[in-house]
Structure formats: structure tokens, C-alpha cells
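Weekly puzzle thread! Below is a chain. First person to post its structure in C-alpha cell form gets bragging rights.
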Amino acid sequence: MNAKVTENLVDVLAEMVDREPGSISMETRFFEDMGFDSTSILVLLMHIENNLGVQFDPDLLEPDDLETVGALVDFINRQPER
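Winning reply:
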């Protein structure tokens, strides 16, 4: 599911921050590089849940999982599918 997760996440992010998908890498940081806040993260997580069919357990989500696009991809890949 890694490639699907990455593609979907990058597409959603590009739309949310009005950037070209090619400008978003696995090292892109949510807060520093894209100007996200906690509300933006929640909206992003809802998009990912709906598009990829995963459920996020908020007790398992750590701040490190939201540092970069790659960290969130890794977190998503550890979640069970619906």
C-alpha cells in the first residue's frame, strides 16, 4: 500500500496547499514547509481515512508521525485497513 499511500497523500497535500505535487517530497515538513496547523492536520487525516480506507487511532499518533510526509506515510502503512 506504500505507493498508493504516498501518491494519495501527495495529491491531497498539493490540493490543500495549492502546490504542484512534484514540489512535495518525503522530506517535506507539514508545519515548517507547508504552514499546516492542527486543524489542517485533522482535515488531512480525514481525507486519508476516506480515500485509503484506514482508521487512525489517535492514541497511537505521535508528534514524530507528523514531522514529514515520509513519517506520516510510515504511520499510515502501520494502520489496519477497514
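Puzzle host: Confirmed. Bonus trivia for everyone else. The chain has one domain: 2-77.
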